[in-house]
Amino acid sequence: MKRISLIVLLFLLFFSTSPTFSQSKIGWFNSKTVMEKLPEAQDAQRQLDNFVAEWQSELAKMQNEWQKKYQEYEKKKLILTDQLRVQAEKELQDLDKKIAEYRNKKFGQSGELFTKQNEIMKPIQNKIFKALQEIALEDEYDYIFDKSGDVLLMYSNDKYDLTVKVIDRLTTYDKQ
């Protein structure tokens, strides 16, 4: 992230002396604030939170089951035959593997949470992007940065903050 910030800073310093760049109009907005103010984004977040709570509950049940079986095994392992001990250990390993697979299936890099996030949030993100494009064209902005993202702004004048304008634009969409 520091590297990206440095690149952006160098880019701005290098081109700010250029006559073309010095006449560019730059704006910024805070997508996190927009998402917090947008009712449909809040609804989408609640949906995602419900999925996560359900999956975490199921995961907790599986982990509790494993814990019970492990405690049972620990109590009895000294009196178990080799065959029964091996069987109990295999059962614990299988259950542990099942827990890991479930966690990965739901919360992994390409798991259901990632898929649901894309599915639920993509239309909202597209709507925000459309509002930004319209504002950029109407007000002739050359660049618009998202202040809440990876691009770090070292300084920004509040008069170029487009967050409220984006929220207002999105509100007019809902009224149409």
Describe this structure in words.
- This protein is mainly alpha-helical and 176 residues long.
- The protein has a domain at 48-115.
- 73% of the residues lie in helices and 5% in strands.
- It has seven helices and two strands.
- The chain has helices at 2-15, 19-22, 31-37, 39-76, 82-107, 112-138, 163-175; strands at 26-29, 143-146.
- A two-stranded parallel sheet has the order 1-2.
- Helix 4 (39-76) packs antiparallel against helix 6 (112-138) and helix 6 (112-138) packs across helix 7 (163-175).
- The longest helix has 38 residues, at 39-76.
- The chain is rod-shaped and about 80 Å long.
Elements, N to C (H/E):
HHEHHHHEH
How far apart lie the N and C ends? 40 Å
> In order across it, which strands form the biggest sheet?
1-2
Helix-strand makeup class: mainly alpha
What form results from the Cα inertia axes?
rod-shaped
**What is the alpha-carbon Rg in Å?**
26 Å
Strand count, sense and barrel status of the largest sheet are: 2 strands, parallel
Number of helices: 7
Key terms for this structure?
mainly alpha; 5% strand; 2 strands; single chain; 176 residues; rod-shaped
List the helices and strands and how they pair.
Elements: H1 2-15, H2 19-22, E1 26-29, H3 31-37, H4 39-76, H5 82-107, H6 112-138, E2 143-146, H7 163-175
Parallel strand pairs: 1-2
Put the structure in a nutshell.
By secondary structure, this protein is mainly alpha-helical.
